[in-house]
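Subject: Sanity check before I submit

Could someone independently write out the structure tokens for this chain? I want to compare against mine line by line before I put it in a report. The sequence has 219 residues.
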Amino acid sequence: MDKNQGMISCAVGCWLVALLGGVLAAGLLIALGSWSFTQGIFIGFVVFGLGGLLLSVMMCRPFPAIGATTVKTSVDDTSASVATGSAADAAASEQEASAPAPAVTPSKQLLGQQDLASRKGEWKYHADSGATGAPSQAASVAPAASNAVGEGGSDNLTKMKGVGPKLAAVLNENGIERFDQIARWGADDVKWADESLKGFKGRATRDNWVEQAKALAKG
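---
Independent answer below. Compare away.
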């Protein structure tokens, strides 16, 4: 806003000066040059028009701020320098990354190195079957695998306390059909029954199947 007002004020001032010059020129030509009034007025208008136009162009044209061109040139040069430096750094980093690492060669053979090299062999890990926490085979294999049904046929397992038809059917599916089979169960077999019979976990221990089977096997 201030810049526009300044330009308008400058233009008004230039045209006023041109008007004063035109009036002065006309007056001098008429008074001293023996020109007619019409001729003097014509020359006055010419001086007014040309003078106002030239003064407006010369005096009121906006000029760039001092140092603006220099600052712009400096910024452009700095940007170009930074871009060139970044490209050079990137190229150097890529070249360093692609260069193979130098091989490290020992200056002399270490003490005992040759003896150690002669003793090299293939080593394999073998799990300790007796390690603590290893799952027992009896916990994943039904006890009936080693206790086949005898010639006497199957027993009615529902005579045991806590064993209904559904549980008896599950036991039969796993090959457990007689009281004497359950009577021979050890701790691993009881554990298998407690953990493997879906829907009946813990029943073998809670209902004391082994003692019940021993009693029922005796008749």
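---
OP: Matches mine. For the report I'm noting this point. Residues 2-60 form one domain.
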